[in-house]
Amino acid sequence: MIIQDMLKLNRKKRGYTQEQVAKQLFVSTQAVSKWENGQSMPSIDNLLALSDMYNLSLDELIQGSPFFKKPYVIGKKYTWKKGMRFMIGWFFVVSLISGFYYQSLWLWGMFVVGVTFLPLMMSDYWMIEQEGLTLKQYPKGLKESYRAHWTYITRSIPYSEITAVEIIYQPKIRMSPMDVGPDTFGLRVHLTDEQVSLPFKTDTAKFLPQFIQFLSRKGIMVIDERRIVEGMLTGKPIYEWLESQI
């Protein structure tokens, strides 16, 4: 249960003893101990007081991460506004290279080339929704992209079809100091007859503890062999957490 871990973790982060917390909340030390051992739950009033004491929102205190509204997009969602920004930016770059000689066929040729490869910049993304997960996948390759007329393939996975969700984290082997590529981080969704891999981005991974609890409430088994969620609750980078467990 995340809440008992969060209560203990945040008390220790701020250097409080159980006696000090109990004194500020006008409860017994035994009550604080039971909260942190998962034997009982604080009342709403005490949760609000703990939220103020630890300077956290209730969602961060109870679920280990900020609240996110559904549908929640993970990945880069393509929009026409982003496409227009790209084309305007590309036109400016080509104009700058050509010395703003707008009658140059070379300028317009380079602009057309940039627009031609625009579909290849579209990336897959997925969404967390109330009733399931929705995957938005673009066809791979230049021919496939144009055959689909810049559209994506939509796939819906109801939570009722998911048997388990596995948290995957694999540090990347750095070949040089200039290798700054991201580690492999995401979910492996187990269905009855297949598995689907879903990437997590750095800016969305902070919602993982709350999402995992959401899945658990749906009756979905969560596999976290490397205790990634536990590490995230400490606030440490995941690779540091894994190294500390060796």
UniProtKB/TrEMBL annotation:
Pfam families per record: HTH_3
PANTHER family assigned to the protein according to its UniProt record, in alphabetical order: HELIX-TURN-HELIX DOMAIN PROTEIN (PTHR46558:SF15), TRACRIPTIONAL REGULATORY PROTEIN-RELATED-RELATED (PTHR46558)
Segments passing through the bilayer: 86-102
Protein name: HTH cro/C1-type domain-containing protein
HTH cro/C1-type domain span: 7-61
Top-level taxon of the source organism: Bacteria
Gene3D superfamilies the UniProt entry points to: lambda repressor-like DNA-binding domains
Alphabetic keyword roster: DNA-binding, Membrane, Transmembrane, Transmembrane helix
